[in-house]
Amino acid sequence: MRAVARAVARRVERARGFATARGIADARAATRARGVARGTAGARRGRGTRSWDAGRARDAGRGTRDAGRVRGTSARDDGGGGVDAEGRVYDEPEVYDVAFGFRDFDKEIEFVRECARRHASYGEGGMGMDATRTVASALELGAGPAWHSVAAAKGGIQAVALEQNAAMRAHAMNKLAALGDAAPRNIRIVEGDMRDVAMAPMTKPEGGFDVALMLLGTAAHLLTHDDAMRCFKSVRENLRPGGLFIVELEHPWDLFSGEIAQGQGDAWERVDEEKGVKVYVEWGRDGDNFDIESQIYERTVSFSLVDASTEAVLKIVQEVVPCKIFTAPEMVALANAAGLEVAATYGDMDDRIALDDENAHNMIMIFRRPS
Fold first, then answer.
1. In CATH, what number is assigned to the domain containing residue 55?
2. What is 315-337 written as a DSSP string?
3. Contact 17, 35 (CB under 8 A)
4. DSSP element (H, E) containing 227
5. Which pLDDT score, from 0 to 100, does residue 271 have?
6. Which residue range forms the structural domain that includes residue 176?
7. Is 247 helix (H, G, I), strand (E, B) or coil?
8. CA 173 to chain centroid
9. Total structural domains in the chain?
10. In 10 A of CB 228, how many CB atoms?
């Protein structure tokens, strides 16, 4: 019954609302709202709160469907109707920050603390609930703008944010610098590959990290089982005995309902009032390819940055991002083979929401290094 209710709720959501995107391009005259406000783990980051339908808007700003599927296309309005190539989705951290930086990261770090109290086994309390167990250190893999690491550090946790993309690391460090004296000092942003986590001297706590985090769908970038196995083994080496590895993935419903297999995309808009900009996000496009053998979804990701007042286009970034869709049994098998055990599974970054709850958005899997 919950599955049926979930399907009905999503159909209703898609029927709601109407939003226009004036000025993005001549051909984008109007778009219809999909209304899908659920979680979007996969090419990394969260869920929107308001939606618009980009699935039919194959406008001049993003090019034709064939041209739009070229990896790593980006454009800026040059004032004369032309475009300039600029790079890929993850090379645009400022736009990315507006598109995905709206989750309550402080609250999600509290969820991490609660997971440690319930499911970790380090400390005097050992296995089982220990209300006195704390989190002193955290490693965030594929950290992007390091949202969770910054929130953890502000809460007194020694945080290390591992990120391979130079633009993302620079953006994270610039945001910390902008905080001035209020910036936490107990955080490091380091370059690294999450398949081979090699910590520099004095970066890894003695004995290992209390928790490791791979959130916001970052696991989808592990495109093969070999990549995933390398990552799991590397995490185990960097965790302390009894420590936790918390992974956020696509909800199984998104795969088994046929939404991913059928290439159904989501879309939403986000506004940064302080900067006076709005970004229209297209997270998957109707018809995107899903390979049923490799379980890789060729997800079209598009950011259209506009002036919040005039809707004048400022920048358009688009890329087809390959995303591996993992099932829960796959993750369990990989974790066990790497020397980790399953501790718990949730339906969101909230310990009150089970995986089969009608309010579940993503799949949160908690793995533990045996003590």
1. 3.40.50.150
2. EEEEEEEEEE---HHHHHHHHHH
3. yes
4. helix 225-238
5. 95
6. 1-371
7. strand
8. 19
9. 1
10. 22
